[in-house]
Specification:
- The chain is an alpha/beta fold.
- The protein has two domains: 2-158 and 329-340, Glycogen Phosphorylase B (Rossmann fold, 3-Layer(aba) Sandwich); 167-327, Glycogen Phosphorylase B (Rossmann fold, 3-Layer(aba) Sandwich).
- Helix content is 42%, strand content 16%.
- The protein is built from 14 helices and twelve strands.
- The strands form two sheets. A seven-stranded parallel β-sheet has the order 3-2-1-4-5-6-7, with helices on both faces. Strands 9-8-10-11-12 form a five-stranded parallel β-sheet, sandwiched between helices.
- The longest helix has 22 residues, at 62-83.
- The model is unreliable at 348-353 (pLDDT under 50).
Length: 354
């Protein structure tokens, strides 16, 4: 079988790295198209996954994103015409959905971002199957929607596949037993981020100044840091971020993906974003599992974050994380079976293992 997948965000590279390698190891052909963000490219390189780069940016405003949409659609059409995939897989990419429709091939995706309105508009009309967490807030009525008890982060952070690397502590020049805080800032350039907000610039400077008086602080940022914040920049490789998260005392973030990653790993996290209240998986991680807190207001979030910095809280989070592990499915096994279960010649259900 031949599979075409697009990577349009660093989280997509993490999510599908195991699926891509598994398909290739079983003799399938996989073509990866990258709409580049530097971190996404670095991740694919570190995982040894070959790709074809479409553009160097995902765009920062509606006009640029419109151009990228048209250019990427044409590029993907040509790539698909040459590669002749049997299946289109990945996330809710409107370009991939349209190309799959033009070539009359199945589009099988996992999506957890309700705010991806344009992408979901195309996919719910075209995609053969849309797999979502069962807490997904947007209606996707129809036979194509398949809600499951899982999160996208489990593709790469499930206990079956994730093993933290303790060497990151020495790379961070931490003393034995020294605790540290991780902060995550984002660029707000994604299509679902337009019109939304998290930390203000003045708040970032004030917060870091206060926290650094008592704690070791590292900042992971989607954009270049400058001024007083630069000295706190996290300098580990992008593919080590989840190990950093695992050993951190707590995370304070404006990133939905990283807040969920932290929760699923078992590290206390506070997420500040006006987007949070729209996201079903974020609500579930707070209300059902008690593994994160989300706020619209940065000052309210900061007060809650300070409450989470005692060592006892980290132990409590690890216990709650174990409850989550017993409640969810193995996302890699489930998704792999979904995209490989039909024999090319006669559509007979085929049993697979991962």
């Amino acid at each position: 079988m031949r599979y075409l997948i697009s990577i349009e965000h660093p989280a997509w590279a993490n999510q599908y790295k195991i699926i891509i390698k598994k398909l290739i190891s079983e003799g399938h052909k996989v073509k990866v198209l990258l709409i580049n963000q530097e971190v996404a490219q670095n991740l694919l390189d570190s995982y040894g996954i070959k790709y074809e780069k479409i553009l160097n940016t995902t765009g920062s405003n509606f006009l640029i994103k419109s151009f990228i949409f048209i250019y990427s659609l044409i590029y993907m059409f040509i790539a698909a015409f040459r590669f002749k995939p049997n299946y289109y897989i990945g996330r809710a990419s409107p370009m991939m959905a349209i190309i799959s429709w033009l070539f009359n091939k199945p589009h099988i995706i996992f999506e957890d971002t309700e705010r991806s309105v344009i992408s979901l508009w195309f996919c719910k009309r075209i995609s053969k199957k849309i797999i979502t967490p069962n807490n997904f807030n947007t209606s996707l009525v129809g036979d194509s929607h398949d809600p499951v008890e899982g999160f996208k982060e489990l593709f790469y952070l499930h206990p079956n596949v994730f093993c933290p690397d303790p060497s990151v502590c020495s790379k961070l020049q931490l003393k034995k037993g020294e605790r540290f805080i991780l902060l995550r800032f984002i660029s707000w350039n994604a299509s679902h981020d337009l019109g939304q907000s998290g930390f203000s610039e003045d708040f970032k400077i004030k917060m870091v100044s206060e926290l650094s008086l008592k704690y070791k602080v590292f900042i992971s940022s989607e954009y270049p840091l400058s001024g007083d914040l630069l000295k706190y920049k996290l300098n580990t490789n992008p593919n080590q971020i989840h190990s950093v998260l695992y050993y951190a005392s707590a995370l304070f973030t404006e990133s939905g993906t990283m807040s969920a990653e932290s929760a699923i790993i078992g590290t206390p996290v506070v997420y500040v974003s006006t987007l949070a209240k729209y996201m079903g998986y974020i609500k579930d991680l707070q209300n059902k599992y008690g593994l994160l807190y989300y706020f619209d207001n940065e000052n309210e979030g900061y007060k809650r974050f300070l409450d989470l910095l005692s060592p006892e809280v980290k132990k409590e989070w690890k216990q709650k994380k174990e409850i989550l592990d017993r409640s969810v499915i193995d996302m890699n096994k489930y998704y792999f079976n979904e995209i490989t279960k039909y024999n090319k010649s006669n559509n007979v259900l085929k049993q697979t293992n991962i």
